[in-house]
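User: what does the whole thing look like in 3D?
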Amino acid sequence: MKFLRRFLIRLSNFATRRSGDQRLQDELAEHLALQIEENLSAGMAPAEARRQARLKLGAPEAIREDHHGEQSLPFVENLFQDLRLAVRMLLRSPGFSLIVIATMALGVGATTAIYSVIDATLLHPLPYPNPSELVRIEANLPGVGAHDVGISIPELRDLQNSGVFQNVSLCYFGTNNLTGSAQPAAIASKSVSPSYFAVLGVDPELGRTFDPHDATPGFNLEVVIGDGLWKRAFGADPHILGKSLRLDNDVFHVVGVMPASFRDQGQTSDERSTDLWAAAGFSGDPAPPPMRGTRFQFETIARLQPGLSPQAAQGRLDALVASLKKQYPADYPPQAEWTIHLTPLAETLVGNVRQSLILLSCAVGLVLLISCVNVANLLLARASARGREMAVRQALGAARTRLVRQLLTESLLLFVLGGITGFAVLFCARKFLLQFVPESLPRHNDISISWGVLAFAIVVSVAAGTVFGLVPAWLTSRLDLTATLRQEGRGSHGSRQRSRLRHVLVIGELALSLVLMVAASLLLRSFWDLFKVQLGFNPTRVMTVETRLPNPNDPSTDIYRTATQESVFLREALRRIQTLPGVEETAVGDRAAIPLGHGQNDRRTFPLFREGLEAQSSQPPLIDTSIVSPEYFHVLGMTLLRGRLFADQDLEATPLVAVINQAAARMYWPGKDGKGEDPVGKRVRLLGRLGLRRPDATTIVGVIADARTESLADAGIPKIYLDIYQRPAKTLAFFLRGPVDPAAISAQVRTQIQSVDAALPVIRVETLGEVLSSSLSVRRFSMEMVTLFAATALLLAGLGIYGTISYLVHEQSREIAIRLALGAQRRDILKMVLRQGLTLAAAGAGVGLVGALIVPHFMASLLYGVSPYDLSTLAGVTAVLTAVALAASYTPALRAMRLDPITTLHSD
Amino acid sequence: MKEKPDVLQGTLALMVLKTLDVLGPQHGYGIARRVEQISGDLLAVNQGTLYPLLLKLEHEGSIASQWGASENNRRARFYRLTEAGRKQLQAETRDWEQTAAIIARFFDVKAEDLT
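Assistant: Here's the predicted 3D structure for the full assembly of 1023 residues, as structure tokens:
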């Protein structure tokens, strides 16, 4: 209290510039008068009385200073004084200030930009209350190498009753056909357990969400819709609650609308823009009866009990798993080693971009460091120019700490101005810059330039300014007074220490930019290699048009229930699309058949039972599966190696057939001697989730060459293809090859499809080239960013070396002039200066190469087809760096060469 | 001449408060004199240092000041103890006595007491 009162009074005195000086003077005069009177009455002579009184009082100036210090806030006063002086200094050398501010704006702006991305994605990936309680539950069967096999309804109930979780929910992302409005639309929707919103902990804007205790076995015919759908399809109707809508021919009622700020959780951007949620118990139609062995390959998310750490929860789950294994030995064979694993939900969402983002933040950190080093270097250079000023101020009695404070204020002002400029540029260009951020980044839409980001920018500039301003300030204020003052007009020579530090800084800068350039070139080469990789299929002139057949809750009302029923539609649609202008060939498949065009959600994997190898109860490997029409392989240009492809005579009634790729043949039919046996003619069963209801024996009829349809980076992912005329699929993709007009094709295909079935939507039209390119988007983003940073670093390093060499030339101008006067060849002078530049570059490259051998090791997983220690890359980057160093030294070298000895020597 | 011990700021503040408590309102010179007298000339105040301290105590609200007439009818600034200052003095006196008692006990200790 006392302290606060005192502070406030001083603050108000400071603000109103109220001075207590007059009062003090009066008091002191009175004090002296009284003392003199007393001294006189004690019998002193008048002069002596005055002298003694003065002595007893003490030095009046010191008292005044103390009194003023108590009256006001001297620290703040000095700060303002320093700031005023700093602004004057800054305006006096506008060129210098501009360069420093621009350099820092670059460094801080880039750092802040990356921070804003990381802030939204890595630091706050889940926009829900208490996000640390949210976990993803995964069941694994490590014994048979099966990962994330899903959980069954009885297992879900066991988890819900375990006491570990507040709520557990299944969720399955898919699409629903919304009919009834002018144009049938495909809605990104999720089928979820009724507890889904309770798990996330969010409330609707209107109405309610699902009752977590709803026990309806199938769909409860209630839906919650997103704000986007509400505005788009219902014109933001305030009376939407209770209204019905038709999804896949079933009638649902809207019970709630989510707020506009709500974004669903999920690993793909499609999933995160889910617009409709339907609740189901997953234990009745359309789901199979709840059996312990019937696992749904859905995602399972849960909210932990408050205060329970994921580790502790995992411990309790391990105990639960052990007791369940004992209770149901038939469902959990010991060799499968069934386990349940918890992962914090935030981690699963950023998983694959985390590395790229960490790489980016490291790269941008280096850029920031380089710009700071550059500025420190400039400050040091100016230090020598201000040597006399410092010497004079010190001679007049300024304490060294006071000088350091003044210099630090100046550099802090420059750094903060730079930071604010960087932020301002970022803020103005945010719309433009956000285009470059790939949409597949989690929370892509939530990236914003907010107050938090501004605070970050300022904190970074202040920290950088303190660290990189302190050393130059310290070195500037440290000087030999007499020597500096005696150097009269000669232009002071920088201290040895300062110039050594400057060299170290430039070498460090060069080394850092070399590391960045190596990282960038490795990423560039990986990207290029991936881009140029042998795909194994031909994407040119192929378009995909997606549609979707309804999947009503009651299978008996499904008009596309059997393959025969569906094939009538497919053949007619294909025949009509074939007639469109430009279309040469057509095929159809499910969505998983689009090469590289599917995220995690559409990757269909099925347990593969090989006849004679796996018994029905044991745990089979999972295999990627696509359902395609016979023409698919030809349209995509895939090569048949053995056996045959699908043919027109393969129908629902005839024996089921499948085609596998070579990787599958190699992996699952390795033969006894490891050379491989012919899989053609072997029989397999595929057992699976919803949709694939015929676990009948399927004969492998052909083997095709491997193609990179699942991942660009991996050619050898086993894959099995099934015939769409034998196994119906709901999500469909028509493949069109030929010189079609991409702008018109969407409407043309829609007309054709809807003339067969008017209730079908056209979801998406893309060329395979676009699909391919977007599958590389995160890689491209980090590659482009790191390359940009590396270029910036190179530019800054070039500026740094230019500044240092210019300064060296300036410092040595007398020496050079004398050499010239004594008959040195101008060419020798040029060589001498260039040699200085090269020495710095060589030292920088040497240090940088050591870094370049360590750093890329950490990014090995982001590389493709190029070793982190690629010699040609290292050599090339070193050559570029040397060239830049030479170019940057050339101008000062020329200046040195053209020096006129007479003027130079006279000017001193 | 042996240097007289410097008066610690905190102690001086306490002395000022006590002086004002005992003698009522005083001007700066008066306070300086009293402190000097009471401390038996042991603490010769570098009297000027009193004024920044008086300002500090005033900022803290322990004392208040106003212009008045001195004994020989000249304008002088008079300081008086406020209610808050009185409380502070009491509290600090208690603290001092406690500390002094502890130190006194400590000095009285003989070796046999500690066994």
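In plain terms: The helical segments of chain B are 9-23, 28-38, 50-60, 83-108. The interface with chain A takes residues 27-29, 32, 44, 46-49, 51-52, 55-56, 59-62, 70, 72, 74-77, 88 of chain B (CB under 8 Å).
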